[in-house]
Amino acid sequence: MRRLSLRVRLACAGAVTVAVAITLSSLGLAALFDAHVTRRALVELSVQLDQVLAGVERAPSGALEQTATPADPRFQRPYGGLYWQIAAEGGMLRSRSLWDYEIPLPVDELRDGAEHVHELSGPAGQPLLAIERSVVLPRRLGGSGMRATVAMDRTELAAARNGFISDLAPYSVVLTVALILAGWVQIAVGLRPLRMIRQRVADVRSGRARRLGADFPAEVLPLVREVDALLAARGEEVARARTRAGDLAHGLKTPLQALLGEAGRLRAEGRAGVAADIEAIAGAMRRHVDRELARTRVAMRGHEARAEIAPALAGVLRVVRRTGEGAGRDWQLEVPAGLAVAADPDDLTEALGALIENAARHARRRVRITAVAAERAVTISVCDDGPGIPADRIGALMARGARADTQGQGSGLGLAIARDIAEALEGELTLHPATPGLEARLRLPGVCGPPRQ
Fold first, then answer.
1. Is residue 338 part of a domain?
2. C-alpha distances in Å from residue 218, one per residue of 195, 221, 226
3. What are phi and psi of 95, to 5 degrees?
4. Angle (CA) 154 155 160, round 5°
5. Of 302, 327, 362, which residue constitutes the final position of a domain?
């Protein structure tokens, strides 16, 4: 299963968090709005209850009557949404809006002047918000007690709350999107040092830099310092390896020279066959030692060097054109000026020399050399018009000491050395059949910009 990137995971977590937070906040605001509207409604109901009680009088017949009702027209319209009723000893008084319905008050005992708030059922089954007050009439009205109630249809409050939610929803959506985008920007800015580290590591790998540097935020600076320390330790280890390789070279040179001297002495004594065998063995040993020393040298400085292809190629061709095999060839070059690779000039010259000498040896008339840069790499192609080799023999030809022409001269190490140099530089050498001839493609890491100071 593909793992999501850190950026995507943080963005998803932030988006979910923002969405949940905005949703909860919206619900909380809706609840606060509902509570505020309910409090305002209760205040209005209390005022209207005062008006209802102020209009209670005793008729000449002795019964209580309502002489002045609140001015709100909903009290006069049947099932209008506002209702009042008074339960007294002499009977029940109620607003026209109740028609013949009696608000079902709970069994409740209130002290004089006390108020209770109830959630009741209205004449059409709608929920009511009611406020009830117990009042003792003054002596002129008989001094008896009564329960006065004013109620309103709670549907109106619910409609006001729903309208508030509808008005709030677009702003909540806009705020959610804005916060998610702000979180994405924050993540992008916060993760920028990680992209810088990746770019710096790529620069170190390609040879454009030696260390990551110290211009990083404090949170990632310890990691950068550890990486730089690792690079420094690697450099020291490679330097020690180079020293050991140099010691090995000097240690082998003297015995090889002694062998060659002994071969000369044998040749002087007339034992030319034995001398030739010793010289062949010593020469092969020297070539192998030179090859291993070249690999060690490339491994140490491959990412810390820069070599332009055109000058290295010109130097190789000046030498090859003076040989019998290279003098009669038509050399076709297509190499842009300034094109460079992450390699030491000597290593590049050695790899190109092996490929060009091989092409000159097998070409009939023409050798074409091109160089193309693409995707931080440079591909150098050396194509001859010789007899070529079958595709099924290319793998065997790349083996150490293998030769396409077993009758000609050469040790068979040229292509292998060029391949080792390419691999040490994290490149590759491949052979491809051409029509006619053989094409060798040397792909090496490219270097952009001028040489480093």
1. yes
2. 15, 5, 13
3. -75, 160
4. 100
5. 302
CA distances from residue 356 to 93, 269, 288, 317, 443 in whole angstroms, order as listed: 118, 40, 20, 8, 15
C-alpha 406: how far from chain center? 55
Q: Which domain holds residue 353?
A: 305-447
The whole-model pTM stands at 0.52
Q: Kindly report whether the peptide bond that precedes residue 436 is cis, defined as omega within 30 degrees of 0.
A: yes
Residue 174, domain member (yes or no): no
Lowest-confidence pick of 188-197, 218-227, 259-268: 259-268
Q: Are 86 and 94 in contact (CB under 8 A)?
A: yes
| Residue 125: closest CA among 157, 101, 105, 146 | 101
- The DSSP symbol for 226 reads H
* Count of structural domains, the chain: 3
CATH number of 367's domain: 3.30.565.10
pLDDT bucket at 404, cuts 50 / 70 / 90: very low
State pLDDT tens for residues 45-62.
888 888 888 877 776 666
Q: Are residues 348 and 294 in the same domain?
A: no
Phi and psi dihedrals of 343, rounded to 5?
-155, 155
Taking the C-alpha atoms of residue 98 and residue 122, their distance in angstroms, rounded to an integer, is 9
Tokens 């959506």: give the residue.
Answer: 173
Which pair of tokens denotes residue 355? 């490929």
Contact 340, 447 (CB under 8 A): yes
More confident residue, 4 or 376: 376
Q: How confident is the model at residue 381 (pLDDT cuts 50, 70, 90)?
A: very high
The separation between CA 26 and the C-alpha centre of its own chain, rounded to angstroms, equals: 32
Report phi then psi at 435, rounded to 5.
-125, 100
Domain boundary among 257, 274, 302: 302
Tell me the CA distances in angstroms from 428 to 301, 339, 416, 447, one per residue in order. Answer: 17, 18, 11, 16
Is 424 found in the same domain as 321?
yes
Please give the Cα distance from 293 to 301 (Å, whole number). 13
Kindly state whether residue 453 falls inside one of the protein's structural domains.
Answer: no
**Separation between Cα atoms, residue 421 and residue 427, nearest integer Å:** 8
Angle CA(267)–CA(268)–CA(270) in degrees, nearest 5? 65
